[in-house]
Amino acid sequence: MVEFFGETLYVYAVVPFIKIIAAIVVVLTIIAYTTFAERKILGFLQVRMGPNRVGPWGLLQPIADVAKLLGKEDVIPNRAVKWAYVLAPCLVVGPALLILSVIPFGPPSSKGVASSWFITDVNVGLLLVVAIASIGVYGLLLGGWASNNKFSMMGGLRAAAQMISYEVPQGFSLVVPLLMAGTLSLVGIVEAQLTQGRWFIFGFFPFGLLAFFIYFVAGVAESNRNPFDLPEAESELVAGFHTEYSGMRFALFFLGEYANMIVISAVAVTLFLGGWLRPFPSVEWLSFLDLAFLPAGLAGLLWFLIKLLAFLFVYIWFRGTFPRYRFDQLMDLGWKWLIPASVLAVVATSLWKVVLL
Amino acid sequence: MVDVDSSDLSRDTLFGVEEMEINFGPQHPATHGVLRLKLKVDGERIVDCYPVIGYLHRGTEKLFELHPFFQNVPHTDRLDYVAAATNNLAYVGAVEKLLGIVVPPRASYIRTLLSELQRISSHLLWLATHAIDIGAMTPFFYTFREREIILDLFEEYCGARLTLNCMRPGGQPYDLPVGWVERCAEFVGGFPEKIDEYEGLLTENRIWKKRTVGIGILSPEMALDYAVTGPMLRGSGIGLDVRKAMPYEMYDQMDFDVPVFYNCDTYDRYLVRMEEMRQSTRIVQQCLEKLPEGPLMAKRPRVLKAPKEGDVYHAVEAPKGEIGFYIVGNGTPNPHRCRVRPPSFYNIQVLPEMVVGGLIADLIAVIGTTDVVLGEVDR
Question: Does B138 touch chain A (CB under 8 A)?
């Protein structure tokens, strides 16, 4: 009995707890260095240096940034709605980090969930992702409204309008890999890509590609990144919904944006780019890419990270290249193009599956 | 394309619509200095716009009356502070006209050269801020890379980078330093490629076109009614350029085109300025080739005294439009009255006509396209 109880405690409490801590620490580090990489890459694109003063090659810059933000005065405007003002940044960061619980960073282990490279495998994982991701917008909306500032409010409204427009095509585009895999579990979806022998981006050509494209565009819009960074458009709305925020509360919004980028990239990698699988998992002569000499699962984790970082690079590249869409043009794009296209992808994939297979 | 018909505002609504008043500036990141706009918006749509100016008023016109003609040149630097050379040129041109001084050709060539370099540098600054307002970050750094070289050339010539004070009534204070002509030729030789680089990022960019084509329409009639000049006017299909219409200095010797575009929108004004940079490059090259030897300063009295009676107006084509000085003499070394006609002052007046009915995002694009510098609006 004691043994059984110890086992349960170990599998259901101790291990997940350690994994959660590890995941959050790792992801926060990645976020910190994404900001650094962003500035370095933008510097490279824009013929300048980027940060290079703190530490060798500027590597300690993120730490200096955080230290600075912690030292800043935390201002709450006089006529702000205090509870909402305080709650808003948490509502942005919390959900983004919560989604990490179901992302499979690496392959499951034959020894059970406890020694696998993910926190948990929920059989409705995809639904969980969609459900939690849509909470994030409340943070922006609430923050914009509670600041009692006209620019903030307009930023919040833009965020809400944008989220509503992009939730729909994003949801539809997620149905396509779901149809291909026949399961909602994220681990199951990656394993289906292994058994079918191809990443879902190439599945049901060109509908897998179309769905991936829609998901990524909607994802960029959802994480409020350039060219869809309207809610915080600096030249238009000063700083949008976080105009009034300062110090660590501002940093939380900032953190939320990057956490969202990472989560959206991670979901895209899992659903469309084969998660922890190597490129072309069915091609025999490429099997050296499995990196079998590494300890179990580590190669998978490595592939996952490479794909994730590639996504983050594309995000940064966008920022160096594109101007900003206008508010109504963004809605246009969402409602008039992405939604019909995503419906087309879903219908075509289902017909294909029913009629041809 | 959004329908920006302002009659749309009276549409029937299920719920009551309240208009919000926003104070846009003077400390807003996109108002190019201290422009303040009182906006009335319905959601994101602008119902009314009222520009408030005067936050940078320094009484320049009164200061002119307190100093002799010579000492007034530095005041003109501070009008349009990103295009000091053309301001200098307009002022010294007016003084020379009033006193009947003829400038020696070498000085005149150097003036033409400097004002065209100034036009390029001012347009580069405009492109940088316009692009960053619309959200494209990278052109800013590209243009500043080239602007830096121009400022270095200025620094080598007169010691200052921004407030040049590089001209005197009667001629040029300094000759070009050794090697300056070669360095300048090297820069303008490679510059058209750099313009291609900027255009590669923007001209055919779908988002850029969506944000600028059909935005901020300024009809030719309205442009004339408001006395708009410069690239704003030439983007509306009227090819008036002081350099061609009333040639001054060496412009009648130069071979260059005045670009005119006919769609009256922000995109065409962008194209006008890009083409102007290419034409300015041509003028600089011709100046460098033809640069004659000779004296720099005309023979003139040590103390310049205006005639007892008489007034004069002299205008030049500044990067932003026609800048003119109207000077009245009263027989003393100081001007009796000096009135400045700054292009931005007229260009900013037409702003409400261009933005009402549009969205806030359009307002940003339109402020960028007017290329205002508040230093010369407020004086």
Answer: yes
